[in-house]
Amino acid sequence: IPASFNSVKISPPRRSTPLPPSEVPSASKAVWEKFTPQKRLDRQMYHYGHFSQDFLWGVSSSAYQIEGGYNQDGKGPSVWDVVSNNPGSGIPEDVNGNDACDSYNRLDEDLYMLQALKVKSYRFSLSWSRIFPNGRRASLNQKGIDYYNRLIDGLLARQITPMVTIYHWDLPQALQDIGGWQNVEMIDIFNDYCDFCFATFGDRVKFWMTMNDPQGLAWLGYGTGRIPPKIREPGTAPYQVAHNLIKAHATAYHTYDDKYRASQGGMVSIALNAEWVEPKDINVPRDLVAADRAMQFNVGWFAHPIFKNGDYPEALKAQVLVKSELQGLKQSRLPSFTDEEKNLIKGTADMFCANHYTSRLILDQPTTPIGFTRAVSFGMRRLLNWIKAEYGDPDIYITENSVATPREWAYDEIDRVFLHKTYIDEALKAYELDGVKVKGYATYLMDSFQFLYGYLFGYGLHHVDFNNPNRPRTPKFSAHFYYNIIKDNGFPLPEDEKMIYGEFKKDFIWSSATASYQVKNFCSRLSIWDKFTHTPGKISEHDTGDVACNSYNRMEDDIAALKKVKVSHYRFSISWPRILPDGTTKYINQAGLNYYKKLVDSLIAANINPQVTLYHWDLPQALQDVGGWENETIIQRFRDYADVLFQNLGPKVKLWITFNEPDTLPYIVGHNIIRSHAEAWHVYNDKYRASQGGLVSITVNSDWAEPRNPYKQEDYEAARNVVEFYLGWWVHPIFNGDYSPLVKKSVLELPEFTPEEIKRINGTYDYFGLNHYCSVLAFPVDFGTTQHFEADSDRTWLETGSVWLRMTPFGLRRLLKFIKDEYRNPPIIITENGVSENGPVDLNDVHRKYYYEQYINQVLKAYLLDNVNIIGYTAWSLLDNLEWAVGYTERFGLFYVNRSDPDLPRTPKASVSFYSSIISCNGFPDPTTGPHECWNPNPTPTPTPTPKPEGKKIHFLESNLSVSDSRSDKKFSKIKIQIETYPTLICLTLIFQNKPNNRSEKLF
Q1: What is the pTM (predicted TM-score) of this model?
Q2: Separation of alpha carbons 208 and 206, rounded Å
Q3: Distances (CA, A) of 606 to 87, 516, 805, 875
Q4: Residue 814: in which H helix or E strand, if any?
Q5: In a domain, 636, yes or no
Q6: For the residues of 913-966, what is the DSSP string, one character each?
């Protein structure tokens, strides 16, 4: 044995204790009851942490899938060799595993890959017919044994633990010729094969799996006939085969136990496929029972006899018996174990080895489970908890986990990276948060022959070119990513995620926002949005802006809401058609103008500064009728409109925004908007600045972009292009006078500014107005003659009520730093930032509190650490208002507006108190310095009922210690701790008893 083997640590065998049979439904239904009701935020919250130091990070393979050399050096034919070499095998493209990855001849290359990955374990299987060509000891093939000796010794020399599967579906054809696993003789034949493997390799192999996924073999090989030996007898054969497989495993386990364990000290188990099954509706008892039954069929079929009582689950026995009786059979199609066999089987596993890929949804209907169409990572955590609860808290090794990607995605397969980020993190949650004994994880080493799918898909960390006879192996993006997970032993908390404590500048602008069309009531003259929302098919007939939040008539309610939030500013927009009904100054609607004057005065009286947007998308329909923003005359119209507002409101308004998010096509529209903005800025600069002393700018929206593959320079360039294009389209002309070279290069139909216009536009800003919500992953797309860029989302980013919005706090700081570096560190006001929810109303909007905490903390980092000249922050939005084309289905508000009540009351959500506390603190005080009066994160009281005390339990702990109160002369002789537990509440009461007068004092 190589000396290096001494440094390979593996957990000592954990002898299984037989457990009682499962109930129907099993007690493990508590896993659904605990996890299924989780809120989306709780379910998706990423967990940072580390596995144990002896965690076995590994990769896996199987003999037929990678070895090749199917008739080389005396190897006998397996059932897969025979089937795959016959025409009409059913395997796509009529391929086979004759050569596969050619690992039999390329062992050194495999060992090099393993060493480069720095894995701690390698799970591989032995080819039965390479060791015993006809399946029996008498046909022993020394060259096959030599190959596995070289593999095992090569692993140990690299301090990699061999995890050996003795049988992975490739039964010698000679044994199938005598009936295969339908023949009870296979139990002794398999035991003899295992005995030889233990004796030959067991001095170096300490981790054994007798067989892989016996359930898949029984059902696919003997039920549906999809894999060799392709027998289609679904009614009886799978149960008969499973019966023999279970007894064969148990017999081999006892052989190791009796003959080798004392001298070799290894562990033996069986690798079971384990999908997670989720009930369609946790509140429907029949669905929960159906999910439990599905788990017993899926996992319990084999695990229950081995890990519990030596017999099949009661749910499985009952179901098969009922169906057998309905078919007129005298006895169940499910065979029975004798008492002697039960005693042989139970407890025959030293650890639980699980192959896990996906989860399924099930309801109590006579149908098969509904398969999810994508990775369902939360199923990993729930499965691991279920195994812990159901099988007596065993050590668990995840022996297979991966995802299929098309072979065209040779190297840049982001799906596998997402799988590792999410599935491994769910395993980490199970380990660190739930106390599950997760001991190891393995994924596919390289692309290989995928049984039913041939070479259509890749599952591996390394791409194998099967068209090249040399079978070159190339690491994929996922290999680099997995390497780093191993190096970090999990997921350390990134610097981006760490909180910083401190304050913003004293005059920092704290604001919340609305827009006129989104909160107003119906205007006497139409805007383009009035027409759009009243056009059939454009938006729900109930989701127009006719009333919205009725802010036009409920000004006092809105101001009261603002005061509750404690903002210093309020950003609102002016309704152009309310001031100028036809969009021109031919007629000024004095009533509309008076409304805004009153609003400004009321805000100032409440010590709230108005922050006014001139145009927030609601163009007068009369102007759209003559071409809207495509008609060059609109530049003068907008200039005149701005002049009216500056003249009438300017003496009291010190912050102006000309346009909100002008992102729009065609490009002539953007061209005219930029020119219109410049003209409005010059009107203020020339006529009003000296007397009014305000600031005027434009506010643009931009995502931040990260490279989708951080190992590709092309993705870095795509990420920069995304930001430079969408931000620079508007900002570059205003800050530098003309479109950026990137925009000019990318847009062939882009209009040109004249030299006079460049001079007129350049420098028309007093600050940088930024709307920001989320970030994207960017990557290039080649269209032949040109290259463009597209964006994606990381699946680990928290979802929200909008499909386009995922929580990415880190992006805001990076975007602010980009603006500082690119545009000479201008003063920046974040003019919109917020998050949505949908579905049932929940006033305890914990996800919004989390969003504001994380995003605002990133702003503080930009201010304190990056010296960004950030001067204000605006939360979108004050109220749940009309969210444009999606109506009222997505709610961004700090206040819930009950639209079923004609009074449209504004009810504060929990985020109101949270945001107001940040404002009161002007940032984030350091908690280590003690409590701060400004910080009051307690959620605002909501209509959620207080938990009732039914079923409370009271416990007492007493101590007869002599205790004195340092703040007084009181002495106490007894401390009593009263613990009251409720379904969702725990109350602790400390009772101090004074012995002389037996008086009690309570401290809650």
Answers
A1: 0.89
A2: 6
A3: 84, 20, 34, 19
A4: helix 809-822
A5: no
A6: HHHHHHHHHTEE--GGG---TT---PPPP-SPPPPP-TT-EEEEEEE---EE-T
CA end-to-end distance (rounded Å), the chain: 63
Rg (CA), the chain: 35
Number of domains in the chain: 2
Q: Which one of 341, 706, 822, 832 is the catalytic residue?
A: 832
| End-of-domain residue from the set 489, 510, 542 | 489
> To which H or E segment does residue 162 belong?
strand 161-167
Q: Is 426 designated active site?
A: no
SS3 state at 211: strand
Domain boundary among 420, 455, 489: 489
* pLDDT tens profile 269-279: 999 999 999 99
- Which residue from 815, 906, 938 is spatially nearest to 512, judged by alpha carbons? 906
CA-based nearest residue to 614, from 663, 572, 652, 573: 573
User: pLDDT value at position 947?
Assistant: 38
Whether 419 and 407 have beta carbons less than 8 Å apart is answered as: no
Helix (H) or strand (E) holding 659: strand 655-660
Preceding peptide of 973 cis, ω within 30°: no
Q: Which residue range forms the structural domain that includes residue 339?
A: 3-489
Residue type, 1003: L
Pairing relation of β-strands 704-707 and 974-982?
Answer: unpaired
Spatial distance between the Cα atoms of 732 and 736, rounded to a whole number of angstroms? 5
Task: Quote the strand ranges of 322-383, DSSP E.
Answer: 352-355, 359-362, 370-371
Q: What is the pLDDT of residues 351-393, one digit of tens each?
A: 999 999 999 988 765 444 443 335 799 999 999 999 999 999 9
Rounded to the nearest 5 degrees, what angle is found at the Cα of 562, between the Cα atoms of 558 and 567? 155
Please give the structure tokens belonging to residue 980. 């009251």
8 A C-beta contact, residue 419 and residue 34: no
Q: Dmax of the chain from CA atoms?
A: 106
Q: Tokens for 378?
A: 């939360």
Q: Is residue 815 part of a domain?
A: no
